Every structure is written in structure tokens, then in C-alpha cells.
Amino acid sequence: MSDMSRHPLPRWTYLAGEERRVADHETLGLVKALVPSRYDDCVPAADVPLRYGLTLNDAGFFWEAHEILEAVWKAAPKGGRDRILLRACIQIANANLKRRMNRSHATRRLLREALADLDEWMVRGPDSVTGSFGEMFDVPALRALLLGHIDQPDAGAIVHLG
After folding, report:
1. Given pLDDT bands bounded at 50, 70 and 90, which one contains residue 2?
2. Residues 37, 75: contact at Cβ < 8 Å?
3. Over the stretch 100-125, which tens digit does the pLDDT of each residue have?
4. What are the tens digits of pLDDT across the range 35-60?
5. How deeply is 51 buried, as exposed, middle or buried, from its count of CB atoms within 10 A (0-12, 13-18, 19+)?
6. ∠ CA 102-53-81 to the nearest 5 degrees?
7. What are phi and psi for residue 44, nearest 5 degrees?
């Protein structure tokens, strides 16, 4: 059994302010508990909480993806490229959530912020640690995808991270 298969998706999606039920904190808590207090040199590309957060986004669990990716971001090395890329992924998950809530202005703003983060990541140059999230992620492809989504925030298509 792979590490990912031991961590099921949440039982429901959560839309803050629009639903009476609370988020599935029990399911998310199991994965958040795997995030170290601090990653040493980088966030490994195969890190279970990282992969889980990306999977949540791609499965339509945007609020939940934000929660997990933010926990990983907080533990990522300060000032590192992985942290910048994680910030972009968090903004994308949040933009996907705003798109679901039909908030096109917020969607567009968040996608622009993510694009700025990706541009910053690219300007920093290849200082990634072998096996890191930033080294293994196709940032140029994600950047190109974002450019197509910024002008069409009401199109209904989500931005995938996995």
C-alpha cells in the first residue's frame, strides 16, 4: 500500500461561509500530522503531505488543498524556491475555490499573484536541491496554463497542480 493510499480524500468538500457543515478536519489532520516542524534543505518532491495537497486540488478539494499546502509552506525553508512555488500553489488552490464560488474578480487576482510567484521562482535561477519540489515541478508549463486561465476566470476549468 502506498503512502498516498493510506490517506483518503476528505468525505466532503468545504465552502467557507456557504455551508452549514464544517470541514473534514479529522481526515486533514491525519496528513497535517505528517508535516515536519521544519524541512531541512528542501521540500522533497515525493513528500506525502505535499503530494496529498496537490491531489486534493486536482480532485476539487480546494479549501482542503490550501490547508495542507499551507502547512507544508510553513515548514519549508525560508527564502527557498520551494517556498515560493508552494505559495503559488496555495494561491492557485484558493483561485480554484473562488472560481467555484463565482467570484471572478478574486479568481483573477489570485491567479495573477500565483503568476508573480512563478515569475519570482524562475528569476531566482536553478538553485534547487536534488529531489526537491521545485526541481521536479514543471513551472514553465504551470505558468503557461495560468496565462490561459487569467483571462477566462468564469470558464469553469480548474487549474491542476498534479
Report:
1. very low
2. yes
3. 988 989 999 999 999 999 999 999 87
4. 999 999 999 999 999 999 999 999 99
5. buried
6. 100
7. -60, 140
The DSSP secondary structure of the chain, one letter per residue, reads: --TGGGSPPPSS---TTT-SSPP-HHHHHHHHTTS-S--SS--BTT-HHHHHHHHHHHTT-HHHHHHHHHHHHHHSPTT-HHHHHHHHHHHHHHHHHHHHTT-HHHHHHHHHHHHHHHHHHHHT-S-PPTTBHHHHS-HHHHHHHHHHHHT-TTS-PPPP--
**What's the average model confidence in pLDDT over 76-82?**
93
Ordered by where they begin, the domains of the chain are 4-150 (1.10.3450.10)
Residue 6: partners with Cβ closer than 8 Å, 6 or more residues away: none
- In the numeric block, the cell 505558468 is attached to 143
pTM confidence score: 0.91
pLDDT at 18: 63
In angstroms, the CA 62 to CA 45 distance is 20
